[in-house]
Amino acid sequence: QVQLVESGGGLVEAGGSLRLSCAASGRIVRINAMGWYRQAPGKQRELVAAITGGGSANYADSVKGRFTVSRDNAKNTVDLQMNNLKPEDTAVYYCNADILTFYMGSNNYWGQGTQVTVSS
User: Fold this and answer.
1) Residues 85, 16: contact at Cβ < 8 Å?
2) What is the pLDDT of residue 104?
3) What is the DSSP letter of 89?
4) Is residue 87 within 8 Å of 41, Cβ to Cβ?
5) Cα–Cα distance list, 35 to 13, 14, 84, 119 (Å)
6) What pLDDT sits at residue 103?
7) What is the CA radius of gyration of the chain?
8) Contacts of 84 (CB under 8 A, 6+ apart)
9) Burial class of residue 120 in the structure, from the number of CB atoms within 10 Å of its CB (0-12 exposed, 13-18 middle, 19+ buried)
């Protein structure tokens, strides 16, 4: 069974930085796209950043220039470096990945979420 486990959330003042990490485990053949989504109270979940297996990344307009997504294919991990954080970045952040496994084919998986709170 595949699991995505996130870490690195917390409370930070506006202008500060946080780094989120997500590790995938299980009988994984290959991980295709990986990314981070977020959901603020009363809002829909939205894409923050995504990265392909080849390393091509795309970002939500609201985080361009402040956030950087990276991955380590050997370790099955994806990170999100968040700089110059703003109060509007406050949300639960979710790791997401398209994963091919030995027995279940290709499926989309979610982590449990990690809270990021930015104080003004």
Assistant:
1) yes
2) 83
3) G
4) no
5) 24, 23, 20, 25
6) 85
7) 14
8) 15, 17, 66
9) exposed
Say how far apart CA 45 and CA 60 lie, in whole Å: 12
- Pull the structure tokens for residue 86: 């703003």
Query: What is the full per-residue pLDDT of the chain (120 aa) written as tens digits?
Result: 899 999 999 999 999 999 999 999 999 999 999 999 999 999 999 999 999 999 999 999 999 999 999 999 999 999 999 999 999 999 999 999 999 998 888 999 999 999 999 999
As given in the structure block, the two tokens for residue 49 are: 């950043």
Nearest to 1 by CA among 27, 31, 32: 27
Q: Please say whether the beta carbons of 73 and 99 come within 8 A.
A: no
